[in-house]
Specification:
This protein is of the alpha+beta class. 33% of the residues lie in helices and 28% in strands. The chain has six helices and nine strands; from the N terminus they run E-E-E-H-E-H-H-E-H-E-E-H-E-E-H.
Length: 249
């Protein structure tokens, strides 16, 4: 099949990471997956939520917030504050980001701290939740590396990297990493979150007024795993460059 941008069905969009996009954050990344661009910033607070203290729960906590900037879409998206409540989709996505990162961060090793992840969509062209998770994984790794450099951690709490990608069935063919136009048109929508060693954090698939077969599910899963392997290789390449870069004074 011919995709609008010329990609093959199994091909993800170009991925890039721009670091230190937010100078006051402990770790920050502008992640670009095709025309989707998301700013992921991490700040680490030397305290835990009150509910953890009240329940005497040891270790730390990690949580995320997600929003789409008003100019991220072709028509202006009003800020949630103007409606007086968080958009249901935004709530779902930020919970997914939090779950995905808590799956790969050892909260006991983190100690009594809270990792705050803020994901702001700068430009939306499909796959914003996948980009947010993929960028946040790198931003958290960078922030925890900084804590270790400052000798505030005995052991690194990030156990492994995590990434996410979308897939779907369009005109009977399975494709991966959907852009906005593809996302609108697919008969089946699929999202996968997995770690660098291939373990799943979340698998979500639903028919859009359609059904799908076992073989189509297997194909989407295979394409998703291949896409995630490529995304994590890109994350690893960034971290490898940081390891040979002299630490900031």
């Amino acid at each position: 099949m011919n995709r609008s941008d010329g990609r093959l069905p199994e091909q993800i969009r170009p991925i890039s990471f721009e670091l230190n996009i937010a100078p006051h954050a402990s770790g920050s990344v502008l992640v670009s997956m095709g025309n989707t661009r998301v700013i992921c910033g991490v700040m680490i607070e030397e305290a835990v939520p009150r509910w953890m203290k009240e329940q005497a729960i040891s270790g730390g906590w990690l949580t995320a917030e997600y929003s789409m900037l008003p100019y991220s879409t072709q028509t202006r998206k009003p800020r949630d504050i103007t409606k007086g409540r968080l958009d249901g989709r935004s709530m779902e996505i930020q919970r997914l980001i939090g779950r995905s990162l808590r799956a790969v961060v050892d909260l006991e090793k983190l100690g009594p701290r809270t990792i705050w992840i803020d994901c702001d969509v700068l430009q939306a062209d499909g796959g914003t939740r996948a980009a947010a998770i993929t960028g946040s994984s790198l931003a958290v790794a960078i922030a925890c590396r900084k804590l270790a450099r400052e000798k505030k951690l005995d052991l690194p709490p990030v156990q492994k990297l995590v990434a996410a990608v979308s897939a779907g069935v369009l005109d009977g063919e399975t494709i991966v990493d959907l852009d906005y136009e593809e996302d609108k048109a697919v008969a089946v929508d699929f999202n996968l979150v997995a770690t660098e060693d291939g373990e799943f954090v979340e698998v979500l698939s639903s028919g859009e007024e359609s059904t799908f077969s076992q073989s189509q599910l297997d194909e989407m899963l295979a394409l998703g795993r291949k896409g995630i392997a490529e995304l994590i290789a890109a994350q690893r390449a960034v971290l490898a460059r940081l390891m040979v870069t002299p630490p900031e004074s």
